[in-house]
Write a structure and sequence with these properties.
The chain is an alpha+beta fold. About 50% of the residues lie in helices and about 10% in strands. The protein is globular and about 45 Å long.
Amino acid sequence: MDLERLPEGKFATNEMVLVLGSLTYNLLIIIGQTSVSSMNVPVRKKVKRRRIRSVIQDMIYLGAQFVRNGRKVKLKFGTFCPWFDVVGLVYKRLLI
């Protein structure tokens, strides 16, 4: 997550960066654990946990486009997106 070097010499700024980094790390762990419990994960073999890098590459880097329809803004994914169902399930579970 590239937090080896802190951006500034001020303690308040570095504290904010570390707090946001730990929040991001914990959210990625939760997303990875939620996706492992899903049954329709498009992976080659069954895993017990997902690494942070694979969560970022598979679920965060999805290609989508913002589409405005009326007064609503939606995300439009491609026609073939193997992770779409898993991302929808994780999103629904995190809303609760």
